């Protein structure tokens, strides 16, 4: 594919250097900003691997958020890592993109934690966001963790996975969405991934499913993996309690732009019933729920071609709508 722009940048955002990746076949096309999950789990290595055809209709922007991936710095402290600071970082990045590409708004794609960031961004700065596209939509932290734990427990019982049952008994149920430690959270997430709640049909644990794609990636070199590792845990240790405390079913009743949720039928990381209830009650100029039947938490990976085609059609449709409304 012939990219007019294919750049890796370090931009000053919120007084620190942060890594941004831009890819486009046509710089005059709409801006499409990807907000990765975690916090701290960068994903541009597989966004660019599987979704670069989107560069034909949009200028793709992947951002390693504050303290994550190539944006990690040993000088960052926990007090530098708050949800509100991330929202302001996104706002600053969008201001740069709008000025550089002479746009008034951007399309925002959020995944997992990125949906929390994207939802808060869209709520606070609707003038920045043309369309919000969510995947693995986060809504209510305590309820999220309760349902996800119950899924793992029931699967362990069905499979007579005695080791898993012992581990789940040891870590106990989350209280107000929180486990006693991040290690306990990782036990649950590892089993949830193993049982297919993260990637549809997955049989590997979280480490193998994350590590191998990173090692194979050309986006992160082997030395970069140390930054990735450090950044993931800096984000989680600093922010997880605050993130789990978010409750959009109580605080986000309306968004002022079109909203599309691209949801995997088998998602047990951000369980579907919570997102459905929020979506049904949400006020928006237009909203659409789009199912991916062979996906769990990440349709962008589980059904990459279908997800990419879907987002391409959303962009093309909304651009037509924007042009006819002017």
Description of the structure:
The chain has 326 residues and is α/β, with parallel strands linked by helices. It has one domain: Rossmann fold. Helix content is 47%, strand content 17%. The chain is built from twelve helices and eight strands. It has an eight-stranded mixed beta sheet, with helices on both faces. Helix 2 (83-101) packs across helix 3 (113-124). The longest helix has 23 residues, at 222-244. It is globular, with a radius of gyration of 19 Å. The two termini are 32 Å apart. The model has no long low-confidence stretch (mean pLDDT 94).
| Count of helix runs | 12
Helix-strand category: alpha/beta
Order of helices and strands: EEEHEHEHEHHHHHHEHEHH
The CATH architecture term is: 3-Layer(aba) Sandwich
How far is the N terminus from the C terminus? 32 Å
* CATH C-level label: Alpha Beta
Count the beta strands: 8
User: Total domains, how many?
Assistant: 1
Instruction: Give start-end ranges of low-pLDDT stretches.
Output: none
Report the major sheet: 8 strands, mixed
Tell me the Rg in angstroms: 19 Å
pLDDT averaged over residues? 94
Q: What is the percent of helical residues?
A: 40-55%
Strand content: 15-25%
- CATH topology label: Rossmann fold
CATH evolutionary superfamily:
Alpha/Beta hydrolase fold, catalytic domain
Tell the overall outline. globular
Sheet with the most strands: spatial strand order? 1-2-4-3-5-6-7-8
